[in-house]
Every structure is written in structure tokens, then in C-alpha cells.
Amino acid sequence: MAQLPKIGFKPLSKVESGTVVIPVGAKLKLGKFAGGVAETVGFEKAAEAAGFTGASGSLNIYAPAGVKFDRLTAVAEHSKSEQIGDGQDAAMALGGRIWATISKSKGPVTLLADGQEGEYDPETVAAIAAGMLLRAYKFDKYQTSSDDEDDGKASKLKDKPLSVTIQCADAPGAKKAFKSAEAIAEGVIIARDLVNEPANILGPVEFAAKASELSRLGVEIEVLTPKEMTKLGMRALLGVGQGSPRESRMVVMRWNGAKSKSAKPVAFVGKGVVFDTGGISIKPAASMEDMKGDMAGAACVTGLMHALAARKAKVNAIGVIGLVENMPDGAAQRPGDIVTAMSGTTIEIINTDAEGRLVLADALYYTIDRFKPQFVVNLATLTGAILVALGTARAGLFCNDDDLAGQLFEAGEATGDKVWRMPLGEAYDKLIKSKFADIKNTGGRYAGSITAAQFLQRFVGETPWAHLDIAGTGMSSPSSDISDTWASGFGVRLLDRVVADHYEK
Ligand code: BES
Ligand code: MN
Ligand code: ZN
Fold this sequence. Notes:
alpha/beta; eight-stranded mixed beta sheet; six-stranded mixed beta sheet; 16 helices; 19 strands; binds ligand BES; binds manganese (II) ion
């Protein structure tokens, strides 16, 4: 099993063993901490010989002369691929690149945490550490042997987590800052684990049990069964799950961190289709295995609730996830069926593969009706069309409130979980009018992501609301400095940042 490193923080002192890592700026500019060591081992000469300029990449000097440790690793402080951010994201990316260069180290690793512009502040140091954790994450629990384990010894070594000591100017400050950064990284990792897990292991009931584990952190949990959801009239959600032998669930998570218990909460709602076959409107076979990730929205909400609770965010937050499996079966819902949502709106099912919006219709309405939140943000792997529009680099943002849209956009630029606003409006809304019911669940060939968003908007009333279509970013997204796995954990850092910047009191 892949192990996350054990990270500690210490003041500057002499290193006697293992690997020493130094960040290097362009033109080989070094911080004060690294300067002394670099001179002793003849770093500049080695860098010149290797053609390493500090602009990108890394350089290793093994068994360096004049010191007791075994290896000096220089890592470029900045990278060409770096996303524009507020500095924190760049620090996380640096941590990720450091991890990639030292992950196979045999002994302990020490990072001398200062850069060309001076000593790193505690938040930067904490972000570097969190970046290491996120890059170190692997989902290899089902791999009984690994390619790079050539003998039994290597595999034993791997069972022990690598210990990383970060030497920095303000070690107690960094340790404190890391508590929050680590809570957020754990939230991302929880989301990734849920998305990577195959659907034979993680059904609606198992997902609900995983989310219930948050009660350990003081999150209040309620799990609604089909019987309770039937009473509430959630026939849009229940219709999606009726072709599966596995029962649907809805989980309500509540974190009360605001000073006032009665402060209006913020709310997050996630699509949790544990597997999407398409139902009777069955999908083609190619890449259907990816549909185990059709619960990335619910995974993000769960990871976010973990992050908020673990860092004791001063906010009242609600997380609601709708958990179903979309299967074809004798009991499955048909095209042409008409269902009544909890709101009373009637929906004609045109395509049983447009199921996410049906789940969210009831989850959104229930959340707003019961909790009257300041705003609600939902996340969903909702449409293939958002991949056509935005690719894998940005999630689609649909929003009925300019302030909320601005907050989400800015948090996206800062964290690297980027979004791009898409339009809503009457011209699109009319495309979901139905011949037989109030609305239908698809809007035709064009503007597929927008008509899906229009459908959701029918269930949110006047509440400030944002929908993030994460079909392109939540799974199967390209690797980055801080992600080397199929499931990115998209949205946890984004929404944690929105809460931290605007809603904590
Ligand atoms: N879960 C899919 C969307 C999806 C596609 C997510 C690719 C991730 C990658 C969703 O339930 C779906 O099937 N949407 C349909 C809607 C259509 C039937 C109107 C789609 O996008 O084709
Ligand atoms: Mn579908
Ligand atoms: Zn789906």
C-alpha cells in the first residue's frame, strides 16, 4: 500500500543523514538556509555540469563531499506549468514536485524551507507540506504487487511511511498552519478515495456508511432510507434508483461551527450516482467503467464536510448527498414515464441517462426547503457536453447570483480548482418544456450542459445558487503537480476557500 509521508516541522539545524532538499530559483538563486550547504557540497559546479539552471526540473547530488547526509536534491522553486494563483497554490505545486523527486528515498528527508525571496511564511510551508501529501496519494489498494518492487526488501521498505522534516524559520507557526492545510488535504483524499472505489464495493448504502464516519469529528449525520424519502415525496430521486437491487440513500451532514447556532447555514449538495449505466437508455460500452465516478459531486461534498469539521471552520454548513445506482432492469424507470418531484413539479422522463438532474431536483429542493441556507452550491458530473465546452481544465459554473459567482471564480483561480461561468436564461429554459408534464429531463441536442442547469434551477427558487458541472474535472482528469490519480478530488479546496474567505464568522 502506498503510504503518505509523516511530516514534521523543526527549526534550522544540521542534517546528519538521508536526503536534503533545497528549493532553487532561476539562475540558481538560493535562500539563506540552503546557501551554506550548497557551497560546502559544490552545488554550483554540479549544476553547471548537469545543465540545471533552476528554471525547471531537479538535480540530485549523491554522496556529496564534506557533509554527513547521503543526497542533496535541488528542486526548481517555480514551474512552467504553474497555474496563476495567490501563491498558496504555487506552494502546493512546489510540494508536489518535491514529493515526485524524493518519494523513492531510502532514508529520512529534510526540506530546508526557504526560497530565493526569503524565508517562507508558515502558511507557505504548510501548503508545501499539503502539496506533498496530495502528490503522494495513490489508489493502489487492489494492486497486490507493484511494478517497481523488484524484491521483498523493497516492498517492506514501502510499508514504512517516509519521514519528512521541514526545517523552517517559524516551526511552531508552520505546525499550526499545517493543521488546517492537512484537514483540507484529508478532505481531498477522502473525495479521491470515494471516486476511485469501484461500484461493486461502494454502493449507496456503503457510501452512506462512509459519510457517517464524519460523526467522529462532530458532524451530525442523518441517513434517509427509501421509506422516508417516499414519505417526503422524492419520486424524482427514487425513480432513478428503482432499477437497482441496491437501495437509494440520502445523507444529511451538519457541521455547526459558527458562534451562533442559529446563524443561517451554507449548503452543499452532491450528485451521488454510484454507477451510471444510463438505465433503459443504456450507454455504449466504451469507457462505461468511468461511470463508477458518477458520484464525484457527492464525494466532494463529503470531503468538504470533513475539511470544514477537521479544521473547525467557524461556519454552519450543511452537506446533502443523493445516493443511487442507475441500472436497467424490469423494475427500472422508462422513457415516457412521468414522476412528481418533492417540489410538486412533474417531470417527463425522455432519457433515463439524464438521471443526475433527477437526483439533484429532490436533493436541492429538500435542502432549501428544510434549511433555508444563505446559498446552496451543488456539484455534479452532470453532462458529457461540459467536456465538449470546457475540456478537463475547468468546471462549468452556472449561477443565479453574481456575488456568489464571483466568489467561486476567484477561489478557483486561487486554488487551481478552476471554473468558468456559463449562461442561463429563458431562451434555454423553454427547451425543457414538456408536452405531457411541467418539464422534461432533456433539452435536445444543443446546449446540453445549459439545459441541464436550467432543469436544476427549476428547484431552487430565489435562493442564491450555483451549479458546478464537474464531469470533466472530477474524474479521469490529467495529472498535475499535486495529483497523480484518476480521481482529482476537485471542488474540496475550491469550496473550502470560498467558505474561509467569505462565510466564517
Ligand atoms: N453521468 C453522465 C455525464 C457524464 C458523462 C459524466 C461523461 C462524466 C463523463 C450523465 O448522467 C449523463 O449521462 N448525461 C447525459 C445527458 C443526456 C442524456 C441528455 C450526457 O451527457 O450524454
Ligand atoms: Mn447518465
Ligand atoms: Zn450520470
